[in-house]
Amino acid sequence: MAAYGRPQLLLLLPCVCLCGFGSVLGLKAPSGPAEPPNPPVLRAADPPVKDAPAAAAAAAAAGASQPRRATGWKLSEEEACREDLTRLCPKHTWTNNLAVLECLQDRREETDIAPDCNHLLWNYKLNLTTDPKFESVAMEVCKSTIAEIKECNEEERGRGYLVSCLVDHRGNISEYQCNQYITKMTSIIFSDYRLICGFMDKCKEDINNMRCGSINVGHKDVHSQGEVIACLEKALVREAEQQDHVRPIKEECQKAILRVAELSSDDFHLDRHLYFSCRDDRERFCQNTQAGEGKVYKCLFNHKFEEAMSEKCRDALTTRQKLISQDYKVSYSLAKACKLDLRKQRCSLDTNLPRAREARLSYLLLCLEAAVHRGRPVSGECQGEMLDYRRMLMEDFSLSPEIVLHCRTEIEAHCSGLHRKGRTLHCLMRIGRGDRIFLTMFPLQLQTLIQSADPGADYRIDRALNEACESVIQTACKHIRTGDPMILSCLMEHLYTEKMVEDCEHRLLELQYFISRDWKLDPILYKKCQGDAARLCHTHGWNETSELMPPGAVFSCLYRHAYRTEEQGRRLSRDCKVEVQRILHQRALDVKLDPELQKRCMTDLGKWCSEKTDTGQELECLQDHLEDLVSACRDVVGNLTELESEDIQIDALLIRACEPVIQAHCHDVADNQIDTGDLMECLVQNKHQKEMNDKCSVGVTHFQLVQMKDFRFSYKFKMSCKEDVLRLCPNIKKKVDVVICLSTTVRNDTLQDAREQRVSLKCRKQLRVEELEMSEDIRLEPELYDPCKSDISRLCPNVNFGNAQMIECLKEQKKQLSQRCHQRIFRLQEVEMTDPELDYQLMRVCKQMIKRFCTEADARNVLQCLKQNKNSELMDPKCKQMITKRQITQNTDYRLNPVLRKACRADIPKFCQSILNKANEDSELEGQVIACLKLKYADQRLSPDCEDQIRVILQESALDYRLDPQLQMHCSDEISRLCVEEAAAQEQTGQVEECLKVNLLKIKQEACKKVNMLLCYVIILPVQFFCIIVAKSIVVYDIIKINKIKRLLPANNVLLICPRQK
């Protein structure tokens, strides 16, 4: 109140003020009060005793009426008002002038009184409020109160300032009689704007400019006087909502208007316009609400949007609320409840702000909310008032002049007719979170309003959200205390779930869009991280205006520190990290909840992802087009993807989809405080478990595909191999290229028996994990996938990519592949045969058999071990079939049989160089080199190791014709014609070869005859024989070769002998 200076405080009209007032009104200043005609005589010394304050006021009133005659004049006895008084006022009021005055000035608007009576009342009040007798009465009735209130006790007596001071401090008056007296005086003064001290002088010009009414006495009746102030109030709030102030109200009049509103804040009777506008509504909604302390105002505010509320009352309430927005002291309850807290929190000591701003409701709320968020004590009464007014701001956008000023176009175009219950504000939020680029300050003003209202601290402040989400809160969040900030987090956790309803989803995302742009609007995050933010991001207080970085950038700073290692230092506290992770999980639900991402990627979202509107699709789309994005967007998406690789739980939608498989197979790593990529690794390893659903599988595979774009997107790989990459594979970024680079280095070191591996042990272990993961899906190996895309469409259109099924399909269709694809498949098989662990299908199908037969075998010898146990009775049939497939593949080319290649490394160039000279590097030799070695085997010219390997091949192919590629190539038609049943047998034990030998003379194709003759020639050499079948016995035609026969054939098996040709 001191803001207006002492002289401006005198809003009551004492005698000093009125000296110049008569001339302003066109009146002659009277030497004494106006004399009513023939007043009756009453001694001033005989006041009633039952109501001391009323008696004192009545005595003073009577004395003021006629100081030069006997006191006791009665308004009820005046001819001008007798008829009106008899008609309108109860009989028990007739003897009390103040009661009569109150009755007549509070009559209903449609009830007129005679002009002479109206004029009489005006003169009576005018003289009544100028008489020094009222000061003497005040000194008597308020003696102890004056002594308690320092400012009033120091006022100079006899000048009329004392009563004004008591009105100013009436909220602090505890003495009943004094309080009653001052209340009566206040009601008289506020019945007419012309009786308020100084108001006329300060606002005369503005009243005329705004055409708010006449200043002539008697021109308007008592009801219309409130309309003048109401007109000025509306002009004041309208001025704040307009950019061009055509008729600006003078500053001193602005202060006077707000001062009047402030002084009428405790009793709604004092706001004459609102009183008459809302009298019926008060009876309807607030009948049991006692007047005083602003209670009726608050009750009416709470019912403002009820259907039964009259438009006239609603408009008057809105005007008063707008005044409160401009000056919080216009709210009696808020100013009283928060007076000490404002002083304690030093909310009016910001020297950087203009004085007028300190009175704004938004500034008060921001300052006190800052104290609450920082854990400083703010009284419960004050917090309760703050809650009411924060809710008020959210319910009615028009109470924020900045919104009306800067959002007028959007409101008129998109949100008209939605002004009730916060719907307009949410409509504006929906527009604000759209993809438009705004040239106005529209989004900024919304952000400012939401910061003032702070709905993140209590969802109930947002009535539209509260109503839309009530059912969800009752079901999904019923375990959380009502009003707790965690309710919003709970709602976010259930976004896009079956418990969420559509209307709640929209309202929630609209609000979260703006909360996500200022880390301080999430009270839990702010509470847990304010210390970390100050330490690491150089922030200050909750509502400081001198931030070194914008609020949206603070969170980016926090999450950059959230995943630092101990070696990197400057990490977040544990509590803060938990909250940062919570926010990241929420942001993953909608790309628009990440301010930096939306800002940097708006163009790319429109260019590449305009059709990707389903949940989570936009970020996936940006990741898919990573190479195509502009650099700023690519950096943001890359950083977020890198972060996800360390903590995949950030991707809330994926985690939600994968819940069954996590619970069944990954619950141990999921429960860890620190993820470090373990959960995603577990999900990849269990991608084909029965608990895995399509959504989870697709999500995991997508993340694997994204990881291929940059080795940094695989956290464990990055941390294990970053030094090796920098040293051995510099300037390589794509993960697949890094893996190939490192794998090639490891392979070369191994083949060359290097004394020390160049790739570190830690990296080699993780490299193995990455290679195994890549072998599961051809799409994870772009070098293979890209050349084979057309072949996939042509040959394997309905085959799934996962479980290496697509790769297996291409292997089986190898002869029909395009040249480029065929070359890639051959290279893949060469790698897999050297390192069987990378053969995903083999390892999957034979997993149990490997555990049974090959636990002690080296990983690179697993296939060799399985081959040796292939005919065991304990061998699983599916695994046996898979082993046979791999044997068939190996026999097509010696390069696909690493054991043979090593054993015959000297024999092959020595005996088969002519074949090698014609060979293509990336295509099979169709068994030509192995056939060459078989011939040399017959001549006993091979080295011992090579001879052993050829013997094994001969034994295996003798039992299964499919293991002989030459036979397959040249005799497939003859087999189909002569040996159908034998070829169809599920178990191959040499039937087809025997069939061909028996039918040797029936074979028509010369190439097949030669191959078949070669079989006999190999078995009994060097003579030529026709073949006959001898079961379980030996018929020897050439005794010299008996030892060779025994060496070739297994015991107790069919022995084939070829007789000499004639």
UniProtKB/TrEMBL annotation:
PANTHER family: GOLGI APPARATUS PROTEIN 1 (PTHR11884:SF1), SELECTIN LIGAND RELATED (PTHR11884). Its main location: Golgi. GO terms for molecular function: fibroblast growth factor binding. GO terms for cellular component: Golgi membrane. It is a single-pass type I membrane protein. It comes from Lates calcarifer. Cys-rich GLG repeats lie at residues 112-174, 248-308, 377-436, 499-566, 571-630, 691-750, 758-812, 816-874, 941-1004. The chain crosses the membrane at residues 1011-1037. The gene is GLG1. Keywords: Glycoprotein, Membrane, Repeat, Sialic acid, Signal, Transmembrane, Transmembrane helix. PROSITE patterns: GLG1_C_RICH. It is found in: Golgi outpost; Membrane. Residues 1-26 form the signal peptide. Pfam families: Cys_rich_FGFR. The keyword Calcium does not apply. This is Golgi apparatus protein 1. It comes from the Eukaryota.
